[in-house]
Amino acid sequence: MVKMRTIIKAMFASFFVSFLLFSPVFSSSNDGLVRIGLKKRTFDADNRLAARFGSQEGEKLRASLRKYQFRDESGDTDIVALKNYLDAQYYGEIGIGTPPQKFTVVFDTGSSNLWVPSTKCHLSVACYFHPKYKSSQSSTYKKNGKSAEIHYGTGAIAGYFSEDNVKVGDIVVKQQEFIEATKEPGVIFVAAKFDGILGLGFQEISVGKAVPVWYNMLKQGLIKEPVFSFWLNRDTQDEEGGEIVFGGSDPEHYKGEHTYVPITHIGYWQFDMGDVLIDGKTTGFCAGSCAAIADSGTSLLAGPTVITNIS
Questions:
Q1: What's the half-sphere exposure (Cβ side, CA atoms, 13 Å) at 220?
Q2: Of the listed 76, 78, 108, 195, which one is catalytic?
Q3: What order of strands is seen across the sheet that includes strand 265-266?
Q4: Signal peptide: which range, if any (predicted)?
Q5: Of the listed 76, 164, 195, 295, which one is catalytic?
Q6: Which of 1, 229, 231, 236 meets the CB 3.0–4.6 Å disulfide criterion with 253?
Q7: Catalytic status, residue 31
Q8: How many domains is the chain built from?
């Protein structure tokens, strides 16, 4: 754990989020990066049906990714393409098991656990709109069984831990602990475009103290550098939603140099923010510095109620 803490400290300045307006250009596969692309999807028939269950729950759907409330009941780089839904949900594909069972997940820096729906989820409406993990169809599955529950603001899931291989881009993380969700109550996840959540926060906030996926990428020597980075495409006409890079950053998707800030509290990606400016002028609401969290799981900017006084 001492070694892992050393790695974490080395990574404090290495979480990048790049927002560029031009179309994505993916670098070649021999550049040592592991890419997962993010793409847009249309609002298809299944999701129109799901929306009927959640038409009055829009705020809850957005709030489902405002977490910060948890309770426990019991070599190279990799780039993953991301999909963009209404500039609110950016998600990409992973595989769990052998052979891989495909799921779309939000890569969420505001939480630390990986979970997907379980084939044993029978009573939650959300599970009928998403693929479910079948342990019996994986030759690398290992039973765990420890119960777990995660609260995401107004949303929550419950289930139990299992272990299996997780394929992210072109790399395979072996014997990753994750949660099989057997309960997704309410309508929070019914209309969601993603199936589950892959947490990129620190182990300190992990339910059940499960080792996060990106920790195991480092421990198993699967990525070259202790860095991951996001590129989110804001071009609404483009099919590509962006990408997440494990093991580095993609120079095709940013200009100039990155600004580095230290992480002030291990758990979330928390840092000190110097001020809130409008037209280059201070608002006076953060002039003395205040803490902020970089959260890739939500499209919103949130702050204390005093911020509403800014006009």
A1: 17
A2: 108
A3: 265-266, 269-273, 290-293
A4: 1-27
A5: 295
A6: 231
A7: no
A8: 2
Q: Are residues 80 and 143 in the same domain?
A: yes
Look at the alpha carbons of 269, 270, 275, 277 in this order and tell me if their dihedral is positive or negative. positive
pTM of the model: 0.75
Of the candidates 232, 264, 283, which is a domain's last residue?
232
Percent of the chain topping pLDDT 90: 32
Check whether the bond before 185 is cis (ω within 30° of 0). no
Q: Which of 40-44, 218-222, 223-227, 234-238 has the highest mean pLDDT?
A: 218-222
Structure tokens at 67: 């977490």
- What are 74's two structure tokens? 């019991």
Burial class (CB in 10 A: 0-12, 13-18, 19+), 78: buried
Closest CA to 295 of 20, 43, 62, 126: 62
Q: Are 240 and 231 in contact (CB under 8 A)?
A: no
Residue 231 sits at φ, ψ, to 5 deg, of: -125, 120
Domain of 303 in residue numbering reads as 255-309
Q: 165, 198, 232 — which closes off a domain?
A: 232
d(CA 263, CA 247): 19
Is residue 2 a part of any domain in this protein? no
Is 108 considered catalytic here? yes
